[in-house]
Specification:
- It contains ten helices and 13 strands.
- The chain is of the alpha/beta class.
- It folds into three domains: about 90 residues, Beta Barrel (OB fold (Dihydrolipoamide Acetyltransferase, E2P)), CATH 2.40.50; about 150 residues, 3-Layer(aba) Sandwich (Rossmann fold); about 55 residues, Ribonucleotide Reductase Protein R1, domain 1 (Orthogonal Bundle), CATH 1.10.40.
- It has a six-stranded mixed sheet with strand order 10-9-8-11-13-12, sandwiched between helices. It has a five-stranded mixed barrel with strand order 1-2-3-5-4.
- Helix 4 packs across helix 10.
- The chain is globular.
- The protein starts with a helix and ends with a helix.
- Bound molecules: guanosine-5'-triphosphate (GTP), magnesium ion and zinc ion (ZN).
- Magnesium ion binds next to helix 7.
Length: about 375
């Protein structure tokens, strides 16, 4: 149709109906192109936002939020040539609205990044909580610029929901990953626990599993689940921020270490931290705030020092953990019992799903491998 119209002789006056169709089609095409351009702009903005910082990502990102963050980064860009003070070593405590709170010596600075900020990790979140950085103060009291991000010892990452190929670093440089689950409101999600265990094994964290809200499970309904992880050799805790059960033991495991608390929203991460160290006064969800949709009370990760030594990063609740850097080859590191059985499989690269002489499938059949763990292994493998 397009070619037909284009090849018409000059001066040809189309039939009014044909003219109408032609104009409508041109308008539709223009609208389509405009909407494509809008989508591309939105995607690019989201990608930039994701690379900036790792927080607030579980929350629905409104366009207003993205616009605000862009306006701020423009503002910091306009002053890129201002005089800067001497470089200081700093630790990133918090990310909030495109600005990083950094501790350097005894001082705290409100820091921004620049287009020239150097980083050894070009393909991941530019600055994450827990990062060691070099900052240079600006003439503005209490403000500084992050000039360099130092190499990360390890990192708790996941792939971004919006862009699977972007690494989102939730926290960097911690020793222990404390997987917080609750025995009720919400009920434990073993699938999520196993995803965390895989992340911990692949990224070199010591995993601790904490089952909170023990006061809501007086009959020990989940004892079998706790025993399952205990038998596998993981450090497990049954705690209650309300009654104080298990807190002494957990405090001992955290003292002097750097840890991160992570888990679903509403499981009691912030409540537990307040109970462990009452002066913290972290904001917690209102009583019975939990509902099946989850409520995000903590909206930004922050690094907090314990009064009994060591520090911890309290993080916003997550709904799911999309694994980063995990493939069929290293997945079994999070399933040590499967890794051990795999040594006796006929094939070295056995996936333990359909291969002949598979020791894992045999163990599953004979009840030597817990079906829940096999089910989670298989479902993670399928999701990779
Ligand atoms: N019964 C009982 N309730 C608890 C316990 N710990 C926390 N809660 C309640 O659970 C709700 C959520 O607690 P938060 O500490 O805000 O949970 P969170 O994991 O920090 O949640 P996000 O910040 O949204 O990720 C609050 O109403 C707490 O009072 C507990 O051990 N027992
Ligand atoms: Mg919280
Ligand atoms: Zn096998």
């Amino acid at each position: 149709m397009k070619f037909f119209l284009l090849s018409l002789p000059r001066g040809y006056i189309p039939h009014p109906m044909a003219q109408k169709t032609w104009t409508r089609k041109r308008r539709q095409k223009r609208q389509r192109e405009e909407s494509d351009r809008h989508l591309q702009r939105q995607e690019a903005r989201k990608a930039r936002q994701l690379k900036q910082g790792s927080d607030e990502l579980d929350l629905e990102e409104s366009d207003a939020h993205l616009d605000e963050s862009l306006a701020r980064s423009r503002r910091s860009k306009s002053s890129e040539d201002e005089a800067l003070g001497e470089a200081l070593d700093g630790l990133v405590l918090r990310y909030h609205r495109s600005s990083f709170e950094v501790e350097a010596g005894k001082q705290r600075f409100d820091c921004r990044t620049r287009s020239t900020t150097r980083s050894p990790h070009p393909d991941s979140t530019l600055v994450a909580v827990g990062d060691r950085v070099l900052i240079q103060p600006t003439p503005e009291e209490g403000e500084a610029v992050i000039v360099e991000v130092l190499p990360r010892r390890n990192k708790l990452s996941r792939s971004s929901k919006l862009h699977e190929d972007i690494e989102q670093v939730i926290v960097a440089n911690v020793d222990q990953l404390v997987i917080i689950s609750s025995l009720a409101e919400p009920y434990p999600k073993p699938g999520l626990i196993d995803r965390y265990l895989v992340t911990a094994a692949v990224n070199g964290f010591e995993p601790l599993i904490c089952f909170n809200k023990a006061d809501l499970d007086p009959d020990n309904v989940y004892q079998e689940l706790l025993d399952l992880y205990l038998d596998l050799g993981y450090a497990c805790f049954r705690t209650s921020a309300d009654s104080g059960e298990g807190l002494d033991r957990l405090r001992k495991a955290l003292a002097g270490k750097s840890s991160v608390f992570s888990g679903q929203s509403g499981v009691g991460k912030s409540s537990l931290l307040n109970a462990l160290n009452p002066e913290l006064g972290l904001k917690v969800g209102e009583i019975s705030a939990y509902n099946s949709k989850g409520r995000h009370t903590t909206t930004n990760s922050s690094l907090i020092s314990f009064n009994f030594g060591g520090h911890v990063v309290d993080t916003p609740g997550i709904k799911e953990l999309s694994l980063w850097n995990v493939d069929a080859g290293n997945l079994q590191q999070g399933f040590p019992e499967i890794l051990e059985l795999a040594e006796q499989c006929r094939f070295r690269n056995c996936s333990h799903r359909h291969e002949p002489d598979c020791e894992v499938l045999k163990a599953l059949d004979e009840g030597r491998l817990h079906p829940l763990r096999y089910q989670n292994y298989e479902s993670i493998l399928e999701s990779l």
